[in-house]
Structure to design on (159 residues):
C-alpha cells in the first residue's frame, strides 16, 4: 500500500496478486495553533475558519488550542509555512510536521502489507497477516563511492 495526496483526497495504491488498485478517499486535516489573540486576528483577516478546542498535549494534559482546517491538503506545507512565516517562526503549531498521508494511515491504523476493506470513504485494516511473503534479510552492503571503500554490516537480529 502506498499513499499520496491530491487536492483534498488521499490516494491509496493497493497491490494485490492480480492487479494494482487506486482508491481516492476524501479527507480533511487540521493543524492546531497555540491560542493567541494575534493568531485569531490573522485567521480572521485571511478568512480562515477556525475554532477553539481542548486537546491533549504530549503529556496527556488537556490544553486549549486553535483548530484550523487545512483548506487544500495538496498545499499543506505551503499553508503551514505561511502561518509560521507571518509570526516570524515564533508560534507553536501542532500536527503541522506530520504529512497528511502519514496522518491518514495513522488515524486509520493502517500498516504496510495489511489487508484492508474499503467502504466509501472508510478504510479499515483487517487483522490478517501479510498476504505477501517477505524475504529474510541476512545482511546489508554499503558502498561509499566518494571513498571507494566497501564494508558489510551483519544483521544482528531479525525484527
Amino acid at each position: 500500500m502506498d499513499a499520496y495526496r491530491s487536492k483534498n483526497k488521499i490516494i491509496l495504491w493497493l497491490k494485490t496478486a492480480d492487479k494494482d488498485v487506486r482508491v481516492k478517499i476524501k479527507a480533511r486535516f487540521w493543524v492546531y495553533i497555540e491560542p493567541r489573540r494575534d493568531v485569531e486576528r490573522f485567521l480572521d483577516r485571511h478568512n480562515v475558519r477556525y475554532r477553539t478546542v481542548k486537546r491533549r498535549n504530549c503529556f496527556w494534559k488537556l490544553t486549549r488550542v486553535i483548530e484550523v482546517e487545512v483548506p487544500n491538503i495538496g498545499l499543506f506545507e505551503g499553508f503551514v509555512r505561511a502561518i509560521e512565516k507571518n509570526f516570524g517562526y515564533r508560534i507553536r503549531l501542532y500536527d503541522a510536521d506530520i504529512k497528511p498521508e502519514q496522518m491518514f494511515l495513522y488515524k486509520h491504523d493502517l500498516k504496510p502489507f495489511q489487508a484492508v476493506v474499503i467502504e466509501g470513504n472508510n478504510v479499515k485494516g483487517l487483522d490478517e497477516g501479510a498476504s505477501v511473503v517477505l524475504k529474510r534479510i541476512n545482511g546489508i552492503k554499503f558502498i561509499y563511492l566518494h571513498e571507494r571503500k566497501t564494508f558489510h554490516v551483519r544483521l544482528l537480529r531479525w525484527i
Summary: The CA atoms of residues 8 and 118 lie 18 Å apart. The longest strand covers residues 62-69. Helices lie at 37-45, 76-86, 100-107.
